[in-house]
Amino acid sequence: MPHNRDGCATTGRLFAVIPAAGRSRRMGRPKLLLPLAGETVIARLLAVLDRPEIAARLVVVRPHDDALADEVARSGGTVVRPEVPPPQMRDSVEAALSAIRERWNPQLTDAWLLVPADHPVLSAEVVDALIDCWQRGGAAAPPPLTKGGNEGGSGADQASSDSSHATPPCPPLVRGGVPFGDVDRGRIVVPTCRGRRGHPVLFPWSLSDRIFALPPEAGLNRLVRDCAGDVVEIEVADESILIDLDTPEDYDRLLKSAQG
Length: 260
Prior knowledge:
Elements: E1 14-19, E2 35-36, E3 39-40, H1 41-48, E4 54-60, H2 66-74, E5 78-80, H3 89-104, E6 111-114, H4 124-136, E7 173-175, E8 178-179, E9 188-193, E10 196-197, E11 201-204, H5 208-212, H6 220-226, E12 231-235, H7 248-259
């Protein structure tokens, strides 16, 4: 049975799904293998997702992208190689969900995180906040997130070591703009920063079949819109959920930020 960071048994597993089959055309070179703070972009992302609640970190790569596949395997990820290069993110997600079904026999109590590979500075605190709110229904979670914290540490580690203090409440949860305190495992959990939605997004496994049933031209945003009444937004003060890596200019900004 999986356990959370507090050592308590949990009733569901999480799987991280990382679409990484793009061709980095705007970057002009493989962006996920670029160095960032002493490691590659993809290695850093996989390290942030290395949580006890996440049963597997699946990275979908193009069939012949051996360099990326080797780096994923070296960094502890599970490589998923479709026979045909996935043309869209949805195709990569479907390939990963199929691999999860075949290998891990997921249950309705499980869930998965959609983590675009080009979100290079995703923080551990954001991941922990999503996990805590999914598991605990807002009963207890890390302190409110602030930009510029220790990205490598767990949000739970920031809590007071004084056992006489109660664990701080989960960052505010809102549905349709109205705060509420109960998150069941059938909901989609989305982080927001200053009112803007970002990544990663947590989906209950119970919705996985609906992804395969979407119209051919529809992306995953269609599912979020169709399930608008079951979307939970968790507000964080961490801009990492909004930062992606597409162009050389994006990379230069990240390097300057890391050096500063």
